[in-house]
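User: structure tokens for this one?
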Amino acid sequence: MFALETERLLSAGLVGVGIDVEGPYAALMNAIRPLLPGLLARVAAVYGVGGAVLGLLAGGLARAWGRQRLAWVIPHWLVLLALLAWDRAIARPALFDDLPALRSVLGWLVDHGQPWHPRVTVGLWLALPLGWLAWRSREHQRSLGLACGAVVAVGLLGAWISRTPSGGERHPLVVLIGVDAFRPDRLKALGGTGAVAPHLDRFVEEGATLFTRAYTTIAQTEPAWRSLLTARWPHRTGVRYSLTAESRWIPTSTFPARFADAHWRTVFATDCSRFHAEGPDSGFATRLQPPRGAVNFLLEKLRYRAVGLFADHRLGAAWLPEFIDNRALAGIHDPIGYADRLAARLVLEASQGPTLFAFHATAAHFPGDPTYPFYRRFVAPSEPIERRLRMHFSPVVPGAAGGAGSWNRAGAEGLYDELLAQADAQVGQLFDALKRTGRYDDALIVLFSDHGESFHADRPDLAGATSVHGARLSEEENRVLLAVKLPRGQQAPARVDTLVRLLDMGPTLLELSQLPSLPSDVDGVSLAPLLRGEPFQPQPLYAETGFTHVSPEIFDPGHWPGAPRSFETYRIRQDGVVEVDGSAHDAMVREKDRGAFDGQRWLVDRPQADGSTKRTCVGDCAEPAVLSSWLDAVLSRAP
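Assistant:
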């Protein structure tokens, strides 16, 4: 099987796997080639061990029927493999969605399959020969008893290994959970149906303070997180778009570093690092994330399906974390299993000392493949199966998606909601683990999103085009989820309607944890007074767009056209890290819209093709002078 799948990958022309590539791809191959032998050897071992385990089971079944010849073992082996694939096809159909020969079967399973179907079938397949064996002779009855005892013992051992550790000693615990791209209007408290995020809704209902008017300074993940960690505007961190070259990062203090300096354990975890990975300068001493850079982009193409069949568990994650704990690998990555392992790690870390634990939940990231039961929640069954099982790129140009007749805004938002529901389930697993171990009530927990998501609701001509964040300054893209639960015994209001910024969280957590503050020149302020019900002076938001797959001219005719959207915009370092090429940086910064929001109005400066800057106002624009002066002051210090 390993040889067949490897041959298929090679014949498909996969870049970097035995293919002679040139030009911009040469650096990609040079970075990847040294790592491939070891990686593929570990993949081959999964195939070998998985096939051997199935072989032992098949041999045992054949012997139970009194047939020990190889001709009887092979059919049992194939049936067991088919049953395993059946189970995984229901759980994670994206594992097989690129196999045309299985399209009709997969479609039926997506519509009608239930997890118990293959499990009952395999139970019967195993029970029949065991029953036959027991009936044949008393000697075999004894063997059967021993075998059943061994199975029970193995099951108990597995349950013991997979158990959630006990809470241990009650050290201070701060948990920071960022749900990627979560729009706050999906919360029941803010107008949602209650069907998308029941665990997040329960978190808000059970005592957390919901900040109803929270905003991010930039609606793209990497720069938003950097501003969150440093409490500074993007131009003061140097990170102003995804994959910013590290040479442009401005060294500065972070709030996790303050926790680390106070001898707290600081942990960051994510299952997707293609466009957001934390390094040592983040202040997180422990970073649990897939490999960064070119290797991660390659892994997405290594469709070794048996890895998803045989290794989607704790042992597999320990042996092949690049595959099993990597959101980029559609169908191979099991988000629920990942969250279960992460919850155990959270409890373990919290038992060993004061802990700051941050988790970036990326279910809404590309490839965007919902798992069971989420792929049946919101997208209509009448939609094509390829649209139901993964995100697809539709150009953001007038009529591009609708003209193809294959997608619509309702379908795009339905898939988005299914992925948010999947992320919500992951968050629920972390909360459940904390509750089981008695750590939930005494923990300080912050739940937030790094940005929103736009489905172009104001542009009917873009219906069905790929959603975007970071392309415009708007409520849809810049308004975020923010809710804070204080430790047991500390009272806080259920709802705060004051304007707050995501970069205010660092100063807030440091004050609440009674740790030294960040330098006095940071842009964020502590929200602790609001949590205590004390007077608070709201601060304006400075915001700027990022760099996306959408040309700014689409939304603003006459806008400066911006930087090129092509592979040449990026470069691959010798260590495999992908980053924006220096020649593209100036154009990316020049094309940015920059603006300010004070809770009443947006003021936005848009660079025009003729070299001018157009300032527009949205909202209550009767008295914009104060905000306009504030924005001018910020821009005077922003390159």
